[in-house]
Specification:
Blueprint (H helix, E strand, L loop, with lengths): L4 E10 L11 E10 L10 H15 L3 H12 L4 H10 L11 H14 L9 H15 L6 H13 L3 H13 L7 H13 L7 H16 L5 H7 L33 E4 L2 E4 L23 H4 L7 E2 L3 H9 L2 E6 L2 E8 L2 E6 L3 E3 L4 E3 L5 E8 L6 E7 L4 E7 L3 E2 L5 E2 L1
Antiparallel strand pairs: 1-2, 3-4, 5-15, 6-7, 7-8, 9-10, 9-14, 11-12, 12-13
């Protein structure tokens, strides 16, 4: 197996003032563009492998047009390494005519889904997760910040040092997550302590500089707080107020009144409120988050006569229409139209290991009853942010989410 090669791309970013940082200071944040040129003993057919090898040969010769052509031929046959290479190439106009982050995301997600069909690919999950985070991070749209945080978080929890550093910067800057110097310090120190050799000397120096500034500003690593208390969350912080709140959508439709037990949307009877902090109960108001449940807990959390929705039922809900809005000062999404609609609060999700709530007010995650076929321990879920809703998947081992039931 050939060595994984990584190209460092520096991104200058203006960072916050205060905490003894001078106004206008710029922090060089290193972003990894992974270029994987490794062979595999087990592939889906020799033809895909031959095409991939030809692509590698042209790539080494810096003939990127021919390299892309042969990677595409290999990718058509589902070879994950070619999908990874193409995803990386679409993130840098050195390799393609025009950078296309949407195409890169599509290819990287396909590669991610293919990993479970191969052996000895566990180490590649955090590599692709971090790269997806980078892709959302570089895409110049603030609605992508929460998605960047989501993918960085997944890779960071698997011990990927670059993802840990990148996630630390998001908490430091308050992008995609609520600004929190303590959590930023925690992840940056984790990145420094990590021995996977993915952080070069320049990145290391920049990261250490931010760590020093945070400590001088009176912040303490969240590591101690998280290990000793379950009350410290990513949404409770001594840092400056969040400056990136998303405004509510203009003139949103009104959800069905709380007195209504359920609303019929595309043939499915949806509860108007989340499951409460106590299983088998509903919250008092539709904007209340309610409880956070593991998938195993969620399967029995609905009151009698109610159950978790299936993947197809979640898709019907998305198809009914979606508007990001605010209800009684709580961000969330209205699904459906007119009186046949429900409000789902953007409650985020709870990280089980650290007992912190992530992305509250920025994203919503709701369990389905359907297991995701291509990734172990993954469950199909509904996720949404200010830009759009989507069917996604969520790790049932590391996270808890809120529950919205359907009537049996």
């Amino acid at each position: 197996m050939k060595k994984i090669m990584e190209k460092q791309v520096n991104l200058n970013r203006t960072v916050k003032s205060g905490n003894r940082l001078k106004n206008g200071a710029r922090l060089k944040k290193a972003i990894v563009l992974f270029i994987v040129i490794c062979a595999s003993a087990v592939v889906w057919g020799q033809t895909a492998k031959e095409c991939f090898d030809k692509g590698n040969a042209y790539f080494d010769q810096k003939n990127y047009t021919q390299a892309k052509y042969w990677y595409e031929k290999s990718a058509e046959r589902g070879y994950f390494r070619s999908l990874m290479m193409l995803g990386a190439m679409y993130m840098d106009n050195e390799y393609v005519v025009k950078t296309d982050y949407e195409k890169a995301k599509e290819l990287l997600k396909k590669a991610y889904e293919q990993l479970s069909n191969y052996t000895n690919t566990d180490a590649l999950y955090p590599v692709i997760e971090n790269q997806l985070g980078v892709c959302y991070d570089l895409d110049d749209n603030k609605d992508n910040d929460s998605q960047a945080a989501y993918w960085y978080q997944k890779a960071a929890e698997r011990g990927h040092s670059l993802a840990q550093m990148n996630l630390g910067y998001l908490y430091y800057e308050g992008r995609g997550v609520k600004e929190d110097g303590n959590v930023a310090l925690y992840w940056m120190e984790k990145a420094i302590e990590n021995k996977d050799n993915k952080i070069n000397s320049e990145m290391l120096s920049d990261c250490k500089s931010v760590i020093s500034d945070l400590k001088e500003g009176g912040y303490f690593s969240s590591r101690a707080n998280l290990s000793s208390s379950t009350t410290t969350t990513a949404t409770t912080t001594t840092a400056a107020p969040n400056r990136t709140a998303t405004p509510s959508a203009p003139s949103p439709p009104s959800p069905s009144p709380v007195s209504t037990e359920y609303v019929l949307i595309n043939g499915v009877k949806w509860a108007t409120r989340n499951v409460g902090t106590t299983p088998k109960t509903f919250t008092s108001q539709p904007e209340d988050n309610g409880g956070y449940y593991t998938w195993e807990q969620a399967k029995t959390a609905c009151p009698v006569g109610w159950r978790l929705p299936t993947k197809s039922e979640l898709q019907k809900l998305i198809d009914a229409g979606y508007v990001w809005t605010t209800l009684n000062a709580k961000n969330g999404g209205i699904f459906g139209r007119s009186v046949s609609s429900i409000f789902l609060p953007a409650a985020g999700a709870e990280n089980i290991k650290y007992s912190i709530i992530l992305f509250e007010g920025r994203m919503g995650f709701y369990w389905s009853s359907t297991e995701f076929k291509h990734v172990s321990n993954a469950i199909n879920n509904l996720s949404f942010c200010s830009k759009y809703p989507s069917l996604d998947f969520q790790d049932k081992i590391v996270s808890k989410s809120c529950v919205r039931c359907v009537k049996e």
